[in-house]
Amino acid sequence: MKTDIIVVGAGPVGLFTVFEAGILGLNCILIDNLDKPGGQCAELYPDKPIYDIPGVPYQTGQEHVDALLKQIEPFNYRLLLNQRVNEITKNGNNWIVKTSSNEEVTAPNIFIAAGAGSFEPIKPNIPSDYSSLENKKVFYSIKDKKKFIKKSVAIFGGGDSALDWTVELSTIGADVSLIHRRDAFRGAPDTEQKVRELAKKNKINLLTPFILNDLKSDGDKCNAELIDTKTKDLSSHEFDYIVFLYGLNKKLGPLLDWGLDNDGKKIIVDTEAYETNQEGIFAVGDINHYPGKLNLILSGFHETTLAVQKAFKRIYPEERVPFGYTTSNTKIHERLGIKSE
Questions:
Q1: Measured at the alpha carbon of residue 22, what is the angle toward residues 17 and 28, in degrees to the nearest 5?
Q2: Is the pTM of this model over 0.90?
Q3: Contact status, residue 282 vs residue 108, Cβ threshold 8 Å
């Protein structure tokens, strides 16, 4: 397969790359190791509200992904899902990418839009093997909150995700217990205040400072054995579901083998076109680093917009980048399928 831009990662920034490339007449192939587009927005936070997309007062993560997919419908792109990039090589001005499914894609440009890189949930260190309960009774993310309606749910964690989901599940009638090793939290202060107010009104159970000592199940309920870190007392608590939101271990994984300058966690880019030290390989979104970097979706949109301009120049070095405003440019309207009046 040949294309103009290979996009590694099909999250919001990867999807928007298709749009920016499309209005310049460039095509993309996206590769993602998940089974659907949307990245972490769709996989980990589909129901989490997003408030800082310009011109959109409110969208959930999945609604944002759906809107981006709708926006790129006019363009010629392809999704290679359930695949990871195993190898990249250079052939003249082109890069050749080989995937875990033995697909081979050639393009002059690679955009790495892999979010935080490869990630896996941080799991509790306890004696019992509870792997048989995973994705049945024990979860590391919440994809369908309806599962927890009228159910008892233990959320372990002290960051934004734990606080946000404690508040959210309390609104749908779940019997929520938030369990954390300290009485201080790492999340947003206003969300923490909401959690404490819910606890005062007995709408949630706030168990601090407690840690998980062991976890067992009788097939129907999960029995969590907790230790009070102050008194060292043990107590047992039954729940329908357990959700561990300790965070993610984030790694660059195989990206470290691609000869890209990095700081061990992020890929270093310039701020002119968000290009790496390898010509034709760009890094956009949360995966990159530069002075003043902000890990925001809207920042990633800006980065990939400029990067696509440079990608066009690599393909057509003798041509001027056909910049135009989407409000009035007839060529862009044609590509978007908009009929002129």
A1: 60
A2: no
A3: no
Please report, as a single letter, which amino acid is at residue 297. I
> Topology of 5-119+249-336 in CATH?
FAD/NAD(P)-binding domain (3.50.50)
Measured between alpha carbons, how far is 200 from 147 in angstroms, rounded to an integer?
26
With cut-offs at 50, 70 and 90, classify the pLDDT of residue 143: confident
**How many CA atoms, within 13 angstroms, populate the side-chain half-sphere of residue 143?**
11
Tokens 């923490």 found at: 192
| pLDDT for 117 | 63
Token output for 159:
């960051």
- For residue 308 the two structure tokens come to 């696509």
Q: Tell the residue number behind the tokens 């009638």, with chain if given.
A: 173
What superfamily would CATH give domain 123-246? FAD/NAD(P)-binding domain (3.50.50.60)
Do strands 28-31 and 118-121 pair parallel, antiparallel, or not at all (unpaired)?
Answer: unpaired
Out of 90-99, 119-128, 179-188, pick the least confident: 119-128
